[in-house]
Amino acid sequence: MRIVFATDLSDANKAAMESRTCLECLDNIGVTEVHLITVVPDNVSSGLPGMDVATDAHKALGAQREVFEEAGFDVETHVARGTPHRRINGLAERVHADMIVVGSRGESPLRNRLIGGTVRNVARTAVKPLLVERIEKTEEGHAVKKEHLFQDALYATDFSENADRAFDFFPELTGATERAYLLHVRGREQQRGDLTEEEARDRLEAMATELRDRMGIDVETNVRTGGVLDEILAEERRVGATTTLVGARGTSRLRRLLLGDTAESVVAQGNNNVLLVPPGSATPR
């Protein structure tokens, strides 16, 4: 498996890379090749004395490259100039990446510097699964908020085609996921009218049986009632999930991807790592 790891060369991103348990999780799902990318904005001049940002970025990437190489991954580094989400997604498509990984500082990645708007824009335009890895500030600096990235996975579904596509990605986490929690929320945001609570529980249990058979893991199911986002976040806390798996809804080819309100809110307001599977994502090799 091949991933693109986007970094702004900050201490926060360095903390995400140096987490041994996170590196082990990537290894456990079969990641062998890492493409490290950082993007230099167009409005930063490289012609002024002391402002050779591309050279400085290459040097900084070299140190981060060593972290992955020491963990046994094959690594290539890329310094691009331009709009971050376009360069990140462009690289992911060019190298046929199976996943994009970005680090997010704080509870709202929509508010921080590089990874803020970039996360939303990558998600809205990506055809590759996107892993948002939460990073928090500590007394010593920064650390990942939830280690063991895929160990306890919460999957939220409205039984739509987009949610089904995210469910189909589950087997790619074999080797790293030990427990899965399947959740359906019956609330104002999802007035489908064609599923009773009992029918929803039956569908979740059928999916749980499939995961148990295919992955050999423990699986629990739950149906909650209330506001969709609130109930997803409450379930994250209840089960102690390390990553929340959700699907995003697509629109036209011209727009490529428009995040659904729920998916975007989980990324923006949640405290968990988020694995977002877009409509255009291909099955990893």
TrEMBL record:
Signal peptide limits: none
Origin superkingdom: Archaea
A Pfam family found in this protein is Usp
What InterPro entries would the database entry show? Rossmann-like_a/b/a_fold (IPR014729), Universal_stress_UspA (IPR006015), UspA (IPR006016)
Domain UspA intervals = 2-132, 153-278
Q: Which family does it belong to?
A: Belongs to the universal stress protein A family.
Question: Which named protein is this?
Answer: Nucleotide-binding universal stress protein, UspA family
Q: Which organism is it from?
A: Halogeometricum rufum
